[in-house]
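re: ur question from earlier - yeah i can do the single chain one, its not a big deal. heres the input i used so u can compare w yours
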Amino acid sequence: MQRGLGALLGLLWVQLCWVRGQQVEQSPSALRLQEGASSTLRCNSSTTIYRVQWSRQKPDGGLINLFYLASGTKQEGRLNATVDAKERYSTLHISSSQQEDSGTYLCAAGHSAPRGPAACPQTTAAPAATVSASGRTCMAVSD
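and the output i got, formated as tokens:
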């Protein structure tokens, strides 16, 4: 119960700290790969990026956090994420795709916090209304 409440409060905090006016766009919006193929997803921001989080939502609805990075490159197995703060983009490269890579990929970009009474860092997540909406990529891997 406590764990679920903590997660709910965390989501609520993110919602309260949502910033309007900054845009995050992700491409491509949909992708179908043959097993073993590689692809790169790109997340562009309208303002300088100070941190990026890449996540994958599995077909059953479960969310997996893949990377959280402020600069440079991180690699985990077949996944590689980069962020270029000055150029305002991040990439997620998936090499040798497998069926378990299928899902919806999401990126969220963090921006510098404003000076003043605001207590929340500014985080702009890409909208998640439809599969083709910017900020998410629906990827299917078939054999």
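The domain at 2-142 is CATH 2.60.40.10 (Immunoglobulin-like). not sure if urs matches, ping me
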